[in-house]
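Entry 12.
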Amino acid sequence: MSDKPVNLNRVRKDKARAEKRARADENAVKFGRTKAEKARDTDAADKAGKHIDGHKRDR
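Predicted 3D structure (tokens):
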């Protein structure tokens, strides 16, 4: 073993940070979308809404 003492609080916090980072990476893969993908979906929804509104009959 090494001769240097180990700071257990630092080890505990580093382990927690690593687990949190791993969980964040998993969520980014599972749920993450790029800004361009979000914009494309928003534009498609707007276009579809305008298309529907254009075909409504007045009462």
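Annotation: The longest helix spans residues 8-31. The two ends are 84 Å apart (CA to CA).
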